[in-house]
What we know:
By secondary structure, this protein is of the alpha/beta class. It has helices spanning 3-6, 51-59, 85-94, 113-125, 129-142, 148-152, 161-172, 191-208, 219-225, 243-248, 253-261; strands spanning 13-21, 26-35, 40-44, 67-69, 72-75, 78-79, 96-99, 179-183, 211-216, 228-233, 236-242. The protein is built from eleven helices and eleven strands.
Amino acid sequence: MTTASLTDGAPLLEISGLRIATARTAVVDGVDLTVHRGESVGIVGESGSGKSLTCRAALGLVPGSLDVTADRLSFDGTDLRTLSEKQWRRVRGSGIGAVFQDPASYLNPSITVGRQLAEVLRVKLGQSRSAAGARSVELLDRLGLHDPARVATRYPHELSGGMLQRVLIAMAIIERPDLLIADEPTTALDATVQAEVLDVLADLRRETGLALLFVSHDLAVVAQVCDRILVMRHGIVVEEGAAADVLGAPQDAYTRSLLEAHREYGLDRLRTPEVAHV
């Protein structure tokens, strides 16, 4: 599917004029962002650039110490600015799923991962205990985990980082959301495991039409998975465009510096109009 066809029609997620501020200063200032159905959009920038806070605004998870305003903040036609916490909980999971950098911190260390998946299935979808248990193993299998029935009996500390991240992805897609926000999901993983997790996300997009908002400080990783890229620095978007355009002919000096810094990761092979998207 081409980038042009992906962006036909109304955006699934639309953010305009987003401002997130402390009492003294704006940490995100005037960000515009759209994600269409089936599209993969990347946000890249150094730590503190505002990319994660931008995504948390789309999830209603910005810390209460910060003030959030926007000209438009909508998901699938719903104005997110008006939602109560109860309404937000309905959007999260069924509409927007999310995975973050440290999966272990989102899992209960004293409960097996299979049981934790099953509990989400029972609470969110009303499945019986037996059906939820079977579905948990199916989800782990779908996420490419070897011997999923055995994995389901393991506690979080018994699994590797890559395995834990796939468990968290399984939880995030239980309600079949239209959009998955992946905030630095591969940062703590070695290169081989990182590639496996990216392959999982690629498979999900192909199989389900899932839209993806992928956040990273690593432009080389974002280049592998995204149709469009936004580059953020100091709370603002300094450059935006199709991945091939941003990688092949960056207009902003900061983007050019990121490209230079990532040459060692093999980014040059992706800096052509034939950038492969997943």
